Amino acid sequence: MTVQHIQCKACFAHGEKDVRVEDRELQLGEHDVLVKVERGGICGSDIHYYFHGRAGMSILKNPMVIGHEFAGIVEQAPKDSGLAIGQRVAVNPSQPCNCCPMCLSGKQNQCPTMKFMGSAQFNPHVNGGFSEYIVASVAQCIPYANHVSPKIMAFSEPLAVAIHAVNIAGSLVGKRVLVTGSGPIGCLIMAAALNSGASEIVATDMSERCRELAIEMGASLALDPTDEKAVGQYKENKGYFDVVFEASGAASAVASTVEFTKPTGTVVQVGMGASPVNYPLSLMLVKEINFVGSFRFVHEFETAVKWLESGRINPLPLLSSEFSKEEIVNALEFAADKNKAAKVQVYFD
């Protein structure tokens, strides 16, 4: 099998407060796709790798290319792949084994050996997309219309997370929805819920800037969760909302969802928090509330690409700033300041 060696530059995380733009060598096989990366969005995990040298239980042991939200242009592709040179693609960072029981049952996001790009879960780590070029499989490359800006399509991955959460909740047609946490994922859940038939969407966040973004992204009302007078009405009569999406991961927000949810309603936990939660288990039991988790996505990535391509969802209100790859440290520092930033993108052209 012929293998090409491609030289380029990429953003490597070496450890705590140590991210560098360095040379890397890619190996391109005859069945691989070479993608020239245009744009990448900074995720919370990228920020954690930069500030802490780890993201949850995934600890950096070797230098790793960060980034898993990105889009680019096909530079080379196998014959009969359906991909043409110059075609713009969103790249799905998921690389499931497709042979384990979870994958075979259509639950690839639960694959125990998932190689997710930009993750240090396994060693050797799986390099991400913050690189001038990346090598991907044909299945990972989802084509979209070339006239659509890569600024928009770099939101494919977080939008897929949001759509998966909405799918986990079941039909939202005519439902009253609460989203706690109005960061990028929370706001994209609002947009996806609105597009899925929700009749009312209320958002909460302690940040005024985030509440303003929530309104732009589809919420009919955005409240400060510490304003008991404003939020208290939604706890009366055993709760108001049919579905609550918890997107902050904050312990207090997680615990509050039970009071806001009406009997037999559903709470979808999307935000990942590190703090122990004093959860009102008895109240959840008495109200027969369905508490479910939502993790990453499966087929929703393709749906996200279609929704962004068609303009069904406009994510650009969430784009706070853009930096070149050479400014990756400044980009990560800015993205970590939640008083200023929602989504920050890095460009590689």
TrEMBL record:
<keyword id="KW-0479">Metal-binding</keyword>
<keyword id="KW-0560">Oxidoreductase</keyword>
<protein>
    <submittedName>
        <fullName>L-idonate 5-dehydrogenase</fullName>
    </submittedName>
</protein>
<keyword id="KW-0862">Zinc</keyword>
<dbReference type="InterPro" id="IPR013154">
    <property type="entry name" value="ADH-like_N"/>
</dbReference>
<dbReference type="Pfam" id="PF08240">
    <property type="entry name" value="ADH_N"/>
</dbReference>
<feature type="domain" description="Alcohol dehydrogenase-like N-terminal">
    <location>
        <begin position="29"/>
        <end position="143"/>
    </location>
</feature>
<dbReference type="GO" id="GO:0046872">
    <property type="term" value="F:metal ion binding"/>
</dbReference>
<feature type="domain" description="Alcohol dehydrogenase-like C-terminal">
    <location>
        <begin position="184"/>
        <end position="309"/>
    </location>
</feature>
<dbReference type="Pfam" id="PF00107">
    <property type="entry name" value="ADH_zinc_N"/>
</dbReference>
<dbReference type="GO" id="GO:0016491">
    <property type="term" value="F:oxidoreductase activity"/>
</dbReference>
<dbReference type="InterPro" id="IPR011032">
    <property type="entry name" value="GroES-like_sf"/>
</dbReference>
<comment type="similarity">
    <text>Belongs to the zinc-containing alcohol dehydrogenase family.</text>
</comment>
<dbReference type="InterPro" id="IPR013149">
    <property type="entry name" value="ADH-like_C"/>
</dbReference>
<dbReference type="InterPro" id="IPR036291">
    <property type="entry name" value="NAD(P)-bd_dom_sf"/>
</dbReference>
